[in-house]
Amino acid sequence: MSLACGLAELRSADGAREFEVTVVTQTPRGNFDDTALPFRVVREPGFRELLRLVRSAGLVHVAGPALAPVVLGLLSRKPVVIEHHGFQVICPTGQLLIESRGEPCPGHFMAGRHKECWNCDPGLGWFGSRKLWFLTFVRRMLSKVVAANIVPTAWLGEQLLLPNVTTIYHGLVQIESPQKTGRESSVVPVIAFQGRLVTTKGAKILLEAARLLCNQKREFTLVLIGEGPERAKLESLAIQAPLLGRVQLAGRLGSAELEAKLREAKMVVVPSLGGEVFGLVVAENMQRGLPVVASNLGAFVEVLGDAGVIFRSGDAQDLAAKLADLLDSETRAEELGRRGKRRAASQFVMEEMILQHRAVYREVQK
Hints:
- The chain is 41% helix and 14% strand.
- It is of the alpha/beta class and 366 residues long.
- The strands form four sheets. A six-stranded parallel beta sheet has the order 11-10-9-12-13-14, with helices on both faces.
- Helix 11 links the parallel strand 13 and strand 14.
- The protein is globular and about 65 Å long.
- 35% of the residues are buried.
- The model has no long low-confidence stretch (mean pLDDT 94).
């Protein structure tokens, strides 16, 4: 949405639009008003309509290596740009995570250990696992011949090992976060988690770390913001001693509710186990001026720079130690918050994201 709006609003010196943008998506419209957007939206097109749209385009930008638009773009001899938001060209599940064990994958597909890929997620079954494995080869081959590949972190580019790669950081929508009044800082410190309640996001690790903090007799409240299939399991853990009364499951919150809840937080924890290529939750909370504690996934390390705290992924003891340090040092927490806010303002700028995409488009259309 941000990229399409930004491109549609670019104007040349004479005031003419630089781009005529058409967004093609499989997402149903629902109650959304497409006419309010500064670009055309085509929803759930059939094959013929998709082919017609590709043939009429000057350039095809694909969010992820989706096979149909990439193949049609190449066959129509159009410049094709793929923006990678996952690991689909180096991992059959696209997560770079061993689902059966909840552990980061060391790169079995790229190392040629294909039996490991077949057995990664037993839920896929024999046919499903091999289908995804085969399609990974296809996506990788196509990504090698497109005009450009865009990645949101240099770390992801190093993992994908594709030609014609450009790193463009995500631009952040400005968040109008209410200022703390002083009342919030006088209560029990709040540790916040924001994200989907799924295995890969690591909320269970955070609960284990919280249990260790309880055993150290530390005062805090843990707030989990988000919904997902893991909620019931997390709720059952949260009502066990010593966590009982210390954990709130806030569910999915609207914008105003989210900002109000995060205004109360002393820090935000992002304990993901894998599947992360940038970390919008990391960057957005840096923008809010909140200190961020994140697992040592490569994307998080790059986004945080020296403006946050890193712990070993999946290590509840290390996470508990890092949280304890911030709970004990108000000065350090405030300094990290200021540093993160400065880094977000300088690195993750919406206007820069738009202009860098424009530069890629101009280059591939020469």
